Amino acid sequence: MFTVLWIVFAAAALIGIILYGLREFHMLQLNGYKTPEHSWWMKKNKRRYLYPGLLFVLQFPLLLLTDKIGIIIMTLLNAVFISVYKPGKKFKKPFKYTARVKRMLTTFGILIAVFYIIAFVLGKKAGTSPTATPPVWFGNKWSFILVGSALYLTAVLVPLSNIINKPIENSINKWYINDAKRILGECPTLHKVGITGSYGKTSMKFYLDELLNSKYNTLKTPESFNTPMGVTITIRNYLKPTHEYFICEMGARRVHEIKELCDIAEPHDGIITSVGPQHLETFGSIENVLNTKFELADCVKAKGGKIYFNGDNELIRKKAPEYEGAILYGLQEGNDYRATDISVSSRGTEFTVTAPGGESHRFSTKLLGEHNVQNVLGAIAYAHGTGIPLEKLTLPVKRIQAVPHRLQLLDKGNGLTFIDDAYNSNPSGCRAALAVLELFDACRILVTPGMVELGAKQEELNFEFGQEAAKSCDYIVLVGKEQTKPIYNGIKDAGYDMNNVYVADGLNDALANVQAYQTDKKKVVLLENDLPDNY
User: What pairs with residue 501 in β-bridges?
Assistant: First the structure.
């Protein structure tokens, strides 16, 4: 009888381990395979682990102090576990079975096998001595506990697999990085420009690529390939001897990560688009953000290259004098490249650029909003610095398209237009997006889950976001009850009609609500930020 129960119990636990394990590996992947960040995420989402934690504790009294009934109860509870953790939710970013994941799955499988082998040996050993003291029941029950523990501790065993594999992964990554450096070394005429910033770096990369392409053969890091392995993949897979410029986006969530990227790409020039309160939970302070972004400037300074700063950013402007010869761009007075006479509408933006020598030229772009002028201006400044006359940049600037999910205008027909700003999650970007929404003579609707990774300031900044949204929107749809409480409170504090606020369970629920709004005007919907699956 106990053999049958053990087989059923072990099989049910194994199914649970597979389902639970894959979910946890997916979250680890979304957290960038970084165990400290994943541990912080687990702590933040501790409710997710209440049920397996409860079962881990409950199994001891149930299995050790009862007879077969305890095993049956635990088996049924494991069945509930399986039903809770079975696949069902459609993720925005599906789990990818990369080579790294396959290696971790192998290690994870070995750890689970150890639990099962010891459990089997204990059970078999106890079963060979039915008259032994302690009795057969005790030995078999510990074999049940080991199998149960393998299931309930899966959330710990997944990051443990990552830790065990870290030396292997570091060795593999080092080989790829060295190979990327070798390839760069074989392109002595290639000019490399690094772009970093708390926000605006991806847009700057796309804009600069469009402008430089009017004269040079360029390669840029695709999408958001701004990590060491993303840059390495770009170099190894796409760099050709014919490329003249390599535009390298550099992202960071921790101190010294920009230096790590500079050690790979070794940029000749650099552009810093912004410094602001983003990823504060991993950086720890705004000073750490500032110093990390300026690691690019330090690298360029050592090489005697050109560094371009957004002079309108207060933190950058204060630090800029430390870098002799730095070139500032922006809308304010005192910048080397300055944009003036800005005209903004729902059809695009026009502005005049004045270069350091006094030369000026009028530009127009399809991009929405005054804040986009800063990034376009930075791209114009750098392109002009390579020898392209301002007038030659007129058509390239006109050709610039909105970067996907960054204030991208999407006309869905039937009187419905989306402003897709799903990649924005910072205070400056949110304010700029609301300003763009105000340009439209329409029924203005905001859909947002709010901002994250802002550390101790997260609640305060989301509260202020709610206050600002109340001034700009006819309807507001908040995605996620817990996450958006500060925004809701900010909206309420602003005296907004709370009948026009809806709190949705998810994005699909939010969009269905938007469709249901009845209005005589065209509906313009701002999709401000779209949190990944690990939020």
Answer: 476
- In the structure encoding, which two tokens stand for residue 264, read together? 């790979």
Sketch the domain layout of the chain as residue ranges: 2-167, 187-399, 408-528
Q: Tell me the whole-structure pTM to 2 decimals.
A: 0.85
Which amino acid, 227? Answer: T
Sign of CA dihedral 482, 486, 491, 497: positive
Q: Which are the contacts of 165, defined by CB distance < 8 A and separation ≥ 6?
A: 100, 103, 104, 107
- C-beta atoms surrounding 149 within 10 Å: 19
Q: Are strands 337-345 and 348-354 parallel, antiparallel or unpaired?
A: antiparallel
What is the 8-class DSSP label of residue 324?
T
Assign a CATH topology to domain 408-528. Protein-Tyrosine Phosphatase; Chain A (3.90.190)
C-beta of residue 374 within 8 angstroms of C-beta of residue 330: yes
CB 476 within 8 A of CB 445: yes
254 in Cβ contact with 198 (< 8 Å): no
Give 400's DSSP letter. Answer: -
CB 300 within 8 A of CB 320: no
The dihedral of CA 420, 250, 292, 211: what is its sign?
negative
Instruction: Kindly report whether the peptide bond that precedes residue 134 is cis, defined as omega within 30 degrees of 0.
Output: yes
Tokens of 391: 């007038």
User: Which strands, in side-by-side order, build the sheet including 191-196?
Assistant: 218-220, 245-249, 191-196, 269-272, 307-310, 327-330, 337-345, 348-354, 360-365
Paired residues of 270 in beta bridges: 194, 307
Distance between first and last Cα of the chain = 45
Task: Write out the H or E segment, with its range, that includes residue 246.
Answer: strand 245-249
Tokens of 101: 């994941």
Contact 146/118 with Cβ under 8 angstroms? yes
Task: Give the CATH architecture of domain 187-399.
Answer: 3-Layer(aba) Sandwich (3.40)
Per-residue pLDDT of the chain (535 residues; tens, 9 = 90+): 667 887 888 899 999 999 999 999 999 998 889 898 899 889 888 888 999 999 999 999 988 877 788 888 988 998 888 888 776 566 767 889 999 999 999 999 999 999 999 988 877 665 544 444 444 444 467 888 999 999 999 999 999 999 999 999 999 999 999 999 999 999 999 999 999 999 899 999 999 999 999 999 999 999 878 999 999 999 999 999 999 999 999 999 889 999 999 999 999 999 999 998 877 778 889 999 999 999 999 999 999 999 999 999 999 999 999 999 999 999 999 999 999 999 988 888 999 999 998 999 999 999 988 889 999 999 999 999 999 999 999 999 999 998 888 888 888 878 899 999 887 678 888 998 999 999 899 999 999 999 887 878 889 999 999 999 999 999 999 998 888 999 999 999 999 999 999 999 888 889 899 988 888 889 999 999 887 665 5
